[in-house]
Protein: PPR repeat
Organism: Musa troglodytarum
Amino acid sequence: MVEMAFLVASSSSSSYPSRVLSPTSATPNRKPPTSPRRKLRRSLAKPLLSDVRRDLTAVPHHTGPSSAAAAPSSSSTRNLLKYYARLASKLAKKGKLRDFLMIAESVLTSDAVAADSPQFVARIDPRLTAQGIAAVLRDGNLAEVIGFLSEAARLGFCLSSLFDKPALEALGLECRRLADEGKLEECVELMETLAGYEFSIKDIVDPDYILSKIIHTRDPDLAVRYASVFSHSQLLFCSILEEFGKKHDVGSAIKAFEIFKEKSGGMNMFAWRAMIDVCGLCGDCLKSRSIFEELLAQNITPNVYVFNSLMNVNAHDMSYTFGVYKHMQNLGVTADVTSYNILLKACCNAKRVDLAQNIYGEIRYMALKGALKLDVFTYTTMIKACGTDYYRAKALMDEMKTMGLTPNRISWSTLIDIYGAAQNIKGAMQAFRALRDVGIKLDVVAYTTAIKVCVENNNLKVAYSLFEEMKRYQIRPNWVTYNTLLRARNKYGSLHEVQQCLGIYQEMRKAGYRSNDYYLKELIEEWCEGVLCSKDQSRNVLGSDNYSEANSRKPYNLLLEKVAIHLQRDAGDSRAIDIRGLTKVEARIVVLSVLRMIKENYMLGKSIEDDIIITTEISKETMNSTGHEVDVRQSITEVLQDELGLDVRTRYGPPDHLLCNPSILPPDSNLQARRPQDLGVIKVTRESLLCWLQKRGRRWEADC
């Protein structure tokens, strides 16, 4: 308050004559002006609000008929209002929003200047005010700004005029901060407050940014409240339904639908259609039918778009889809080309190629008459009805071009798939390359379709080359791409193919996709069985662990990562095997996988240089126990000795190779030379391994 008094005193003494702040006029023979220092001492004793009140009430009033007498009063008032408007703006720039409000309230509520008060508002500098608001927001004082807006609105200010682009950006950052901190209720309340002050909310925040966070909390009430603050609330509400549908949360979507319907006093066709589409995304076709019946019960005739959504959601049920189509005809709703495309889709799903051909003939006749125009989706749907008849499919592609239509990626991908179903991999690859030749940029769908064709036709080499090619072109594989390669588990045979598969598995996990580890585990089991038996024999690599189908959902991340690490090493680094933390079955798989790799490398002419060292769990608690870790070690010993006939040695104390390479031991193990300990180390000698490889080499060659 003292500082503001100083601003009033100093500004008036330097910029305005004394008559602005005093009702008396100056005389020519007045005394020398008082020094600024003395004026400062006087002004410090008076608060700003009293100064403003004194100035406003001291303006002389003239009631006589003479206009000349009233002129000085009007001029004085204008100068006074101009001064206080400038002072208030400067205070606001410094972030002193409360002082701005004190001056504004004093001026705007004064009876003495009531007629001229709009001049004060007009003379407020919005640029300075906006700078101050932005500074306060950047300091994290959002509550102070909201309080300022409330008081400024009460005084009659147009709040949006007090904000420029930087101030709005600072306000938007505060809104996003609340959302990022999970304070979504506060964020929505802020949006509602700003909307009440006639701010354009879409200029402050991205609607989709806040909405995505609200949808993540599955709060339909808050989502509807948020949508209601925007001018395009109906369209945003449709987005809410769609997002809930993508999360397969039909319950929240229905609740939001009912809330918005009650709040808005009715729904437009966009909302009804969106709700039906949500049911389709969630796979709840029965609910889509009940919503449609609810719409009909209100004596509302749905438009063609609502009918199309209902037919599309239920396209798997050809009988119901055609029933909806007849109902549409009975109500006098004219079908469009999308309606007929959905009918074709229903026929394809039901494998009624004959009916699809009849419908296509009808709509083609209508197109020739000009009643409607066929589109790419019509032809693409008809191509899917071709089965393995790639000649018919190619003819439809050519017909599409004669009709002035350009086949899109889906059309070409469908053609590639048909070639693959007919086991014509050459035609599939030609169609795949033609896709690029016609100027269409290849995407993940096209590559995945081509990879699928190669996998189904046992051409993994081309499949992997396409996989590497798409990555070279910066096309990111999706879950379907990875899964297509991993599901070809029964088509892998060589070490190189298994290494490729494990590499894809690791890449898939790094990309954030979840894989079905059970199928990949089966691949490893089948592959490592080749160490124990020939390809014509069948063994259960799971041994005695009473495996059941219920274990198929068990995560095998540690097992698969261990196998991947060992199989991706160089041949010379394969002698150290770490099975710590694995069960008996998992440890068995890892050891047999490494032996399978050694066998294949040996058959390729690579020599065996070292012993195999297997490290099991080591801890003080397990040194003298007969628990799980000892069982694992015993199980591995039995496999190596009894089933493979290898020379296995269990060492106590720190072996020579561990002293030379302690990295294969646990970090907490102590190598004490004086008191030997059971370190849980199993060694397979190089000589025994060579003898085993030579003895079984002939049989493996015969199997190959």
